[in-house]
Specification:
Helix content is 27%, strand content 12%. The protein has 86 residues and is an alpha+beta fold. It has one domain. A two-stranded antiparallel sheet has the order 1-2. The longest helix has 17 residues.
Length: 86
C-alpha cells in the first residue's frame, strides 16, 4: 500500500508504483470519482469510458422503479430551487 502526504497547498505527489500501475506520465489527468459510500476512487484519464463501467454499482441496493426515479428527480429539483432561500 502506498501513502502520500498533502502539502499546505493541497498538492499530493502520486507514489511511483501507483503512477506506473495507472500509466501516469507528466501532464496526465486523473479523476476523483465519489462512490455511493462516500469514498473516492482515483481514475486515470488515460483509459476509456468503458473502464468506468460498474463503478457505481451497489449490489445491496434494490433497483429503482420509474416512480422512484421520478420522485428522486422531483425532490432534487425542488431542493435545487430552494437553494439560497433559506
Amino acid at each position: 500500500m502506498s501513502i502520500a502526504t498533502m502539502t499546505s497547498k493541497g498538492q499530493i505527489t502520486v507514489p511511483k508504483d501507483v503512477r506506473e500501475d495507472l500509466n501516469l506520465t507528466a501532464g496526465s489527468k486523473v479523476m476523483f470519482v465519489k462512490l455511493h459510500n462516500g469514498q473516492y476512487r482515483l481514475v486515470a484519464r488515460t483509459g476509456k469510458i468503458q473502464d468506468l463501467f460498474g463503478i457505481l454499482y451497489d449490489p445491496a441496493r434494490p433497483p429503482m422503479t420509474i416512480e422512484d426515479i421520478n420522485e428522486a428527480i422531483a425532490e432534487g429539483g425542488a431542493a435545487s430551487g430552494m437553494q439560497g432561500l433559506e
